[in-house]
Specification:
Helix 5 runs antiparallel to helix 6. The chain has 15 helices and 18 strands. It is elongated. Helix content is 48%, strand content 19%. The protein is of the alpha/beta class. It starts with a strand and ends with a helix. The strands form 5 sheets. Strands 1, 2, 3, 4, 10, 15 and 16 form a 7-stranded parallel sheet that branches. The chain binds 5'-O-[(L-methionyl)-sulphamoyl]adenosine (MSP). 5'-O-[(L-methionyl)-sulphamoyl]adenosine binds next to strand 2, helix 1, helix 7 and strand 15.
């Protein structure tokens, strides 16, 4: 119980990092720091998702060999982490040998447990989402089909290995009904449960039309579907397949996979099914946060509105950006990023509330008390009221942080800051 294993998703490296990636990493860093303060032995993992068709296409576009391309792009994500004031324990890349070994081991386990069969896939695939979609999920616009995310889809027909996901439907429902805390926020729990109840089909888990992936053991014509490869990273980093290693025993199951709402299905349906099929306990919680738009629009290269975290921090400052991202939007909801909103938060919360309080209290001590905090005299009623608010704060903030409600913890802290300003008045 005294350990805490937290993970970011591993990032696709087809483009440079943007504010959405920074958001997930900063949120995890805050939760990691909080758990360290509780005295827990924290393991915080991040990394890059380097295989699959999307990355292969990006490498071709950049006229680089996939390996050279991923080596170059992964660095941007790795460097961003300390730049954001985040401290991780390991940075995993899915092209590393340890990960290829771990993923092939998991595949072999699924195979041994009779969870995999060879057949043919025919259906829709979105390269941008790296996801298979059934026709009923698609949106039709001008006679063309699109994924629910708006990404283009293409018709795929190829030999494929399948994972017997359909056999896990009832067990997943039973698992989630018994363990409702494992998916947060509650709205995402409901979404996942109704997706499972709507019927699970077997999942295509290998591809033959490109090569940039982990080879399927004993059949080199196939590479693994990028999501079975990617999800396994969470175990590779703590030593899988060595399930007797100290790290693995201490940190598995993961306490918290932090993900964006777009990838909840992979984490809360496919991943626990793979794990249960291999006889492994699923993670204790998956939390899905919302998405940022920018000045009201979806972030996109084509409309050139991508907010780059390196630049943003250079202009506005690190603590300011971290504070804004976690304070502006209730954690779990979508939010809109705008420079006006960021400047407003900096001016009103940080400069006006916190800055003023520090300035007023410190200069008063400096001016009137020889720059030393005097020993307390007897407390007045006003003193008592403020002190009791401060005393309650720790418990209240703990309550919020246990639910990953960072915005709420900040709001509670700011209520005391505002009360302190009134007290000084
Ligand atoms: N590679 C997969 C994850 C595999 S985890 C085993 C992936 N990568 S991603 O780079 O596309 O996205 C990584 C994370 O960034 C996701 O959690 C996603 O939700 C988040 N975000 C991407 N764009 C975002 C916003 N505009 N706003 C907030 N978060 C966003 O998915």
């Amino acid at each position: 119980m005294n350990s805490f294993y937290i993970t970011t998703p591993i990032y696709y490296i087809n483009f440079s990092p943007h504010i959405g990636h920074a958001y997930t990493t900063i949120a995890c860093d805050i939760l990691s720091r909080y758990n360290k303060l509780l005295g827990k032995d924290v393991y915080f993992l991040s990394g890059t998702d380097e295989h699959g068709q999307k990355v292969e296409k990006a490498a071709i576009k950049a006229s680089l060999k996939p390996k050279d391309f991923v080596d170059k792009m992964s660095k941007n994500f790795k460097e961003l982490i300390p730049f954001l004031g985040c401290q991780i324990d390991d940075f995993i890349r899915t092209t590393e040998d340890r990960h290829i070994k771990a993923t092939q081991h998991l595949w072999n386990k699924l195979n041994e447990n009779n969870q995999i069969y060879l057949s043919n896939y025919e259906g829709w695939y979105s390269i941008r989402d790296e996801a298979f979609y059934s026709e009923s999920e698609l949106i039709k616009k001008n006679d063309e089909f699109f994924a629910p995310s708006g990404s283009p889809v293409e018709w795929v027909k190829e030999e494929s290995y399948f994972f017997k996901l359909s056999e896990w439907q009832d067990r997943l429902i039973e698992y989630y009904e018994k363990n409702p805390e494992t998916i947060r926020p509650k709205s995402r729990y409901n979404e996942v449960l109704s997706f499972i109840k709507s019927g699970l089909k077997d999942l295509s888990i290998s591809r033959t039309t490109f090569k940039w992936g982990i080879p399927v053991p004993n059949n080199p014509n196939h590479v693994m579907y990028v999501w079975i490869d990617a999800l396994t990273n969470y175990m590779t980093a703590i030593g899988y397949p060595d399930q007797q290693s100290d790290k693995y025993k201490k940190f598995w199951p993961a306490d918290l996979h932090m993900v964006g709402k777009d990838i909840i299905r992979f984490h809360a349906v496919y991943w626990p099914a793979f794990l249960m099929s291999a006889g492994i306990v699923p993670p204790s919680r998956v939390f899905a946060h919302g998405w940022w738009t920018v000045e009201g629009e979806k972030m996109s290269k084509s409309i050139r509105n991508v907010v780059e975290p390196f630049n943003l921090v250079d202009v506005f400052g690190l603590d300011q950006v971290r504070y804004f991202l976690l304070r502006e939007v209730p954690f779990g909801n979508d939010g809109d990023f705008s420079k006006t909103a960021l400047i407003h938060r900096i001016n009103s919360d940080l400069a006006n509330d916190l800055g003023n309080l520090a300035q007023r209290v410190l200069s008063m001590i400096h001016r009137n008390c020889d720059a030393e905090i005097p020993a307390p005299a007897s407390f007045s009623d006003d003193d008592q009221i403020l002190l009791s608010q401060v005393d309650d704060l720790l418990q209240q903030v703990r309550g919020s942080m246990e639910q990953q409600a960072c915005h709420d913890a900040l709001e509670k802290i700011w209520a005391v800051i505002r009360a302190s300003n009134i007290y000084v008045d």
